[in-house]
Amino acid sequence: MIFGNFEKDRESISTMYSKPIWDANSGVTGEELLNGCLEIEKDNESKPRIIAKSLMFKYILENAQLDVRGEDFFPERLRHDKIIARIRDRWIRALRRYTIPEKLAEHEAEQDSLAYTGNLDLGHCAPDWNAILELGLTGLIERVKNARAKDGLSEDQCTFYDCCETVLSATITLVNRLADAAEKTGSGKSALVAKSLRNLAVGAPGNILEAIQLIMIYYNLQTFVEGEPIRSLGGLDRLLFHFYKNDIENGTFSEAEIRELFRYFFFKLYSIKVTANIPFFLGGRLADGSSSINDLSYLIVEEYSSLNINDPKIHIRWYNEMPEKFIRLVLESVRNGRNSFVFVNDNVIEKALVNIGEDPADARNYIIIGCYEPCAQGNEIPCTCAGRANMTKALLTVMNGGYDAYSGKTIGRVTADPNSYKNFDEFFAAVKEQIGAFIDGAMDLILEYEKYYPTVSQAPLLSSTFAPCIENGRDAYDHGAKYCNSSIVAFSVATTADALVAVKHLVYEEKSFTLSEFAKILANNWEGHEQLHREVLRTMPKYGNGLKEPDDIAKELVDFAGSCVNGKPNNRGGVFRLGLFSIDYRIAFGERTGATPDGRMAGEMLSKNMGAVTAMDKEGVTALIQTVTTIDFTKVPDGTVLDIMLHSSAAEGDAGMTAMCALVSTYMQRNGFAIQMNVMSPDVLRAAQKEPEKYATLQVRLCGWNVYFVELSETEQNDLIRQCENAEVH
Fold it and tell me: Were 233 and a residue from 280, 321, 562, 627 both cysteine, which residue would form a disulfide, CB within 3.0 to 4.6 Å?
């Protein structure tokens, strides 16, 4: 039998990345590999850095030791030691130390206090998977050669094309090396695996095994060798369906064998242990508006769920006509604790991308990068986490006349006497002005960094898959992509909205104290005002309960942030895009943010994504959805998400499944952006906290990825328990 037994091979695959077995006879040592790359860098130091990077890439692929095992259908392991990424990090450190120190100094207090940040973003990209699978390596090379043969090219364009050909040719060399190594294993799979690899060296994939092999090889090379982490494998059901269909019709593989291939594939991705998981998407509408859901969509969810792993993570592109049968299949997995799924809304995302100038056809062909960030596949470098703005800190600094207690400095732009605001509207206007100042500060840093993208980050392998880069003769990070955009995330919507409501009531309506007096109470972390603190937590209107006052304020915050960000030009020929997700950095930013008027204590985490402050959504999930969908998410092209916590008792049986489907459909039909959920019991979470060894595989959806509950910090565990307790009550 060619296909063997996945369960038998599972343990070996699980250690492939944590305990590699490098074949000493297959290449040079790690030290020799590093020295060879350093020599290449030195020999080419007077030339464009893309030359050195492509030659280092070639050297590694031709000389690195391999780890090819007989039990593996998808060999791609070579010893790279992340050498190119380490060298690039040195270039970036030199940039910060010698080239832009004055600019960094201008924003030192704000960045140190985490009022805002601005940086390079080299970790949120994806290749054009359609081009990779349709053209194959040889087809990509032919496309490069045809472009290189054009008349009137500049020297830089010729250099770019030569570097693309260098890395693609080196990839073919590696594929043949892997085939040689696979043959030597002598396993039952060796002949099939080697033959498939040799086919990839001379043409495009011809069956589903070859297609997945190419995905794995390319993912490994761009992510770990070139050093540009891939944050989506694309739409696997649409990318692989014709291979699946043809293989079954032609008798190349049976459905049972294809299912086995996907078990190997998903478990190998899981074993890599990439930070924040490896994503791909299913569903969505095709170019002609028809559904992409097919038989392979169901098979993928079934096989993934059967493995009980927390990675990869799966984006489900929802649209009005999505089959309920498929939605139920996904939600059944979530209900059973295999909850590495998030639903994203085609209707909203396409409009959001068009609103920042992307062609409708490109917007329809979007891909989700990382957690929830959409971009035009094969056409866009979105830099989805280049900047962040802490809206809650903006409010606090206005209350303190521009002073930030953490840094001990005046930050931002607003320095007026806190008691000079005659009414809430004037105060709110000052808060928005400070949010705008924070966004401008983040933009200023990003704009400075963007001048040096071509110097510190070159991606000839990634760029070779982008048709616009080949047409332009320019690297994706050097104005080569069709859309060279940048993103800023303004976060802590709920904390900021609740804090504004508290100020409105206590200072401007009830006149319990002045704004300065309230600021002093907060500076003392509510000490001596414990009764007031309890009343604020219990009685003040809170975002997440379907209440007009906080919901209107949240909407105004988002609209204002969008006006500050969306469409503003960057330094790469693109525009800025607004995001609203907080993911896990709400913890670090919260640690440097003082007590807030909504009752939050100093140092506590800020609100998560589009959700309410933990346990403040007291009217249940329907009211929470009502709140969140008052916001116009077509103004949020960089994405966000609503996290839902359901008590396990609310999801039981057919009635529970019907309720889960209704929640997703209602949220999407009300034009929500994205939604993800946990279904669990606080009793189980508390038991897992006490006896973690008994709950090692208990999964939770955290931020934009899935983790095992027992591996979280106590702070994060307690926050999830509080959310679950709140769901139990409501």
Answer: 280
Beta bridge partners of 399: none
Contact 239, 284 (CB under 8 A): no
Q: What span, in angstroms and rounded, lies between the C-alpha atoms of 222 and 225?
A: 6
Tokens 């032609």 sit on residue = 250
Distances (CA, A) of 244 to 76, 268, 297, 665: 22, 20, 11, 30
Nearest to 380 by CA among 508, 479, 239: 479
Contact between residue 177 and residue 26 where contact means Cβ atoms under 8 Å apart: yes
Cα 129 to Cα 212: distance, rounded to the nearest angstrom: 11
String of DSSP letters for 580-596: ---TTHHHHHHHTS---
Give the amino acid at 218.
Y
Type of residue numbered 124: H
Q: Which helix (H) or strand (E) holds 450?
A: helix 424-450
| H-helix or E-strand spanning residue 643 | strand 642-647
Chain centroid to CA 478: how far? 22
Instruction: Please give the sequence-ordered ranges of beta strands (E in DSSP) within 185-340, or none if there are none.
Output: 279-283, 313-318
pTM over 0.90: yes
pLDDT profile of the chain (730 residues), mean per 10: 77 91 96 98 97 98 96 95 97 97 97 97 95 98 98 98 98 98 92 97 98 98 97 98 98 96 96 94 95 97 95 96 97 94 98 98 97 97 97 98 94 94 98 98 98 95 98 97 98 98 98 97 98 96 98 98 98 98 94 98 97 95 97 98 93 95 97 95 92 90 88 91 81
Q: What is the DSSP letter of 609?
A: T
Query: Is the C-alpha dihedral spanning 301, 307, 308, 310 positive or negative?
Result: negative
